[in-house]
């Protein structure tokens, strides 16, 4: 999937995050990034451009399946405090409380989302599988007409 980048981020003293987000936006395809935040475990995510994510979600037949979390885990997720948006130069990260996604905005417009690698891979696979089996109505009619003109198999 896309490009793989490992980034060591010394938040907030450098512009590594801004450079990675800018490069991923310029590439226009999913980029796998490993953030090593100070004082926390490494976080591996896939940065998916907004247009690519919209295409995947259009073709994927259902939403990414969530794990069967216990009621206690759900209550914990609902009680989490709203995180303040984090700014990295021209980019702002908006973490969602109830999901593993983080929206990346530039100039007030969402340009990409950070997704868990499993979810990004699943969405890409689902979209590809559905899209490959899809024929638009004109293409389907032309194909049916082509098949109707073919001689029966015994005559070939």
Description:
The protein is an alpha+beta fold. The protein is built from 5 helices and 7 strands. The chain has a 7-stranded mixed beta sheet. A hairpin with a 6-residue loop joins strand 2 and strand 3. Helix 2 crosses helix 4. It starts with a strand and ends in an 8-residue tail after the last helix.
Offer a quick outline of the entry.
This protein is of the alpha+beta class and 156 residues long. It has helices at 16-27, 50-59, 71-79, 117-132, 137-148; strands at residues 3-8, 31-36, 43-49, 86-88, 91-95, 102-106, 109-115. It is elongated and about 75 Å long.
Q: Which value, in Å, is the CA radius of gyration?
A: 21 Å
Note the total helix count.
5
Strand order of the largest sheet: 1-2-3-7-6-5-4
The backbone outline, from C-alpha atoms, is elongated
Instruction: Please state the structural category.
Output: alpha+beta
Order of helices and strands: EHEEHHEEEEHH
Mean pLDDT equals 78
Low-confidence segments = none
Cα distance, first to last residue? 44 Å
What profile does the largest beta sheet have?
7 strands, mixed
What fraction of the residues are assigned to beta strands by DSSP? Answer: 25-35%
Determine the fraction of residues in helical runs and give it as a percent range: 25-40%
Number of separate strands: 7
């Amino acid at each position: 999937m896309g490009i793989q980048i490992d980034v060591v981020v010394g938040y907030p003293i450098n512009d590594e995050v801004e450079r990675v987000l800018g490069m991923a936006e310029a590439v226009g395809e999913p980029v796998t990034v490993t953030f090593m935040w100070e004082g926390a475990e490494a976080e591996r995510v896939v940065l998916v451009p907004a247009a690519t994510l919209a295409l995947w979600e259009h073709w994927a037949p259902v939403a990414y399946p969530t794990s069967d979390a216990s009621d206690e885990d759900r209550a914990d997720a609902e009680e989490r405090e709203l995180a303040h948006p984090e700014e990295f130069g021209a980019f702002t990260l908006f973490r969602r409380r109830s999901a593993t996604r983080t929206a990346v905005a530039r100039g007030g417009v969402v340009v990409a989302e950070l997704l868990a690698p499993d979810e990004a891979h699943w969405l890409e696979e689902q979209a590809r599988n559905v899209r490959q089996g899809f024929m638009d109505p004109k293409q389907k009619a032309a194909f049916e007409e082509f098949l109707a003109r073919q001689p029966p198999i015994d005559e070939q």
